[in-house]
Amino acid sequence: MAHHSRLAGFIIDCRTGDLGAAAAFWSAALGIAIVDPDEGGEDRYARLAAGPGDLHIEVQKVEHESRVHLDIESDDIEAEVARLTALGAREVARPRDGRWVVLQAPTGQRFCVVRMQHPQHGAAPTQWS
């Protein structure tokens, strides 16, 4: 069965004790407003307004070293994970009861496959068979 996927956006992972300060910095640096300073109420995620091309941009408090990772959104997470692992990615984790899957590219970068939120916005997703 065919499924669809596309680049959803970028997550700015920050090893910090102060999510608000990290979000304020990235908001000012990118010129993009903070629309939810504590998404989910866990003091872990701050969502910025949509970036260029309607990309999702989020600041995330993490325990690992600071880095930027990308999210690929799909209308079928399992099919997209299978497609990407066939290309050489490996599965790293399924946090949050499998709401997303963390993968690692053959070249070492980690990225996530997440559920498609708004298929009618942004770039058209690619259809995969």
Walkthrough of the structure:
20% of the residues lie in helices and 40% in strands. Strands 1, 2, 3, 4, 5, 6, 7, 8 and 9 form a 9-stranded mixed β-sheet that branches. The longest helix is centred in the first third of the chain and has 12 residues, at 19-30. The chain has one domain (3-119): 2,3-Dihydroxybiphenyl 1,2-Dioxygenase, domain 1 (Roll). By secondary structure, the chain is of the alpha+beta class.
Overall pLDDT score: 92
CATH homologous superfamily annotation: 2,3-Dihydroxybiphenyl 1,2-Dioxygenase, domain 1
CATH topology grouping = 2,3-Dihydroxybiphenyl 1,2-Dioxygenase, domain 1
What is the CATH top level name? Alpha Beta
Shape: globular
Alpha-carbon distance between the two ends: 6 Å
Helix-residue proportion:
10-25%
CATH level-two architecture: Roll
Main β-sheet, in a few words? 9 strands, mixed
SS summary, helix count: 3
Number of strands: 9
List strands and helices in order, with pairings:
Layout (H helix, E strand, L loop, with lengths): L2 E12 L4 H12 L3 E3 L8 E4 L7 E6 L5 E8 L2 H10 L3 E4 L1 H4 L1 E5 L5 E6 L10 E3 L1
Parallel strand pairs: 1-4, 5-8
Antiparallel strand pairs: 1-5, 1-9, 2-3, 3-4, 6-7, 7-8
Write a short abstract of this structure.
By secondary structure, this protein is an alpha+beta fold. It has one domain (3-119): 2,3-Dihydroxybiphenyl 1,2-Dioxygenase, domain 1, CATH 3.10.180.
